[in-house]
Design brief:
Blueprint: E1 2-7, H1 11-28, H2 30-33, H3 36-61, H4 70-85, H5 90-112, H6 117-136, E2 147-148, H7 157-184, H8 186-196, H9 198-203, H10 208-234, E3 236-237, H11 239-242, H12 246-258, H13 265-280, H14 285-301, H15 305-314, E4 324-329
Antiparallel strand pairs: 1-4, 2-3
């Protein structure tokens, strides 16, 4: 006869989690063992990872397909500049800037979260453009021309590089851990139901609007942190660059390639995107052609993305956020 049990962890997932923790510890020592170029590249990868995880939480789990997350990416950088200019310590400014980006998302959510499907996507883009125009009008940051995070000049180039890397690594670890905890919570368990059929979810007592609000604000904080950290590595701030829709396009690409609606997918997608950009990013228009071709390939042949296809084929979940039913065969 056979019986069934509900489980979340198994030996593979426990081993994978332990391995991931070991990798995080090892990454903390990276600036001590590799050169400046390697540290810069890993910092870039970690920023991409943050962006991918945030967009996946929005679209993959909550069903909120935003094309305006560049709003909070840009605001994170903008607030970091403003806080630093007003005497706040430069690295404290990065932290506070991400929280301010989340705070701005609160009144914004009152508007955009009442929109649905394609209208929501357009609405988020309109909001991003509105913030972009407002920042362009602010002459204290140079308007369209932009400015620089001059407070970082207090550090030597080597120290600044290392501090930026550790700040980005810390932010990535904290945000991934918070995302993991959120998705494993009662709120996270209701997200797939809302994504698939919000009316049905509401009929069984799920607070649809409040649940989406939590994810929307959380993703804004994460994207704000990514923008502030990107500013710390590039130093210069130009609104047209930071509020560009290309940032959301990058997020979408990474999540679709890695696997929409899987926790591991954005991690895989960020690595794939980074490798493509690192190898072909200096090829000009051919780089964009390559990205488009890769997106078409995955859409046609790996619709669930790399990790989504692995899950479908082998049922492998290294970092499980949900439960599954396992059958025990007994004689």
């Amino acid at each position: 006869m056979s019986s069934y049990r509900v489980e979340r962890w198994d030996r593979v997932s426990v081993a994978a989690t332990a391995a991931l923790c070991a990798v995080v510890v090892a990454l903390a020592f990276v600036p001590l063992v590799i050169g400046a170029n390697g540290v810069d590249k890993l910092t870039t990868l970690l920023v991409y990872l943050i962006l991918a995880v945030m967009w996946n939480a929005l679209a993959g789990y909550a069903g909120l397909v935003s094309v305006g997350q560049q709003a909070f990416f840009g605001l994170g950088a903008y607030f970091a500049i403003q806080l630093s200019n007003h005497g706040v310590g430069v690295y404290l400014s990065l932290l506070l800037a991400s929280l301010l980006a989340g705070l701005v998302s609160v009144p914004t959510s009152l508007f955009v979260l009442r929109l649905r499907a394609g209208v929501f996507a357009i609405g988020t883009w309109v909001v991003a453009e509105a913030f972009h125009l407002l920042v362009n009008l602010d002459h204290s940051v140079g308007g369209v021309t932009g400015t620089s995070l001059t407070a970082l000049n207090a550090f030597s180039a080597g120290d600044r590089r290392d501090y930026n890397y550790w700040a980005t690594l810390g932010a990535a670890v904290v945000l991934l851990a918070l995302t993991f905890s959120l998705l494993r919570s009662r709120t996270g368990a209701s997200l797939p139901a809302i994504r698939d059929d919000e009316d049905a979810a509401a009929s069984v007592g799920v607070r649809v609007l409040a649940t989406r609000w939590v994810v929307y604000v959380f993703a804004a904080i994460g994207c704000g942190a990514a923008g502030a950290l990107w500013l710390a590595t590039s130093i210069t701030f130009q609104p047209n660059s930071y509020f560009s829709v290309q940032w959301t396009a990058y997020m979408i690409f990474m999540v679709l390639v890695g696997g929409l609606g899987t926790f591991e997918g954005p991690i895989v997608g960020a690595i794939v995107f980074f490798l493509i950009q690192d190898r072909f990013g200096d090829q000009g228009v051919w780089y964009l052609v390559g990205l488009g071709g890769a997106a078409i390939f995955f859409a046609l042949f790996l619709g669930r993305g790399v990790w989504g296809s692995v899950v479908d084929r082998f049922g492998l979940k290294l970092l499980p956020v949900g439960y599954r039913l396992r059958r025990d065969e007994r004689t």
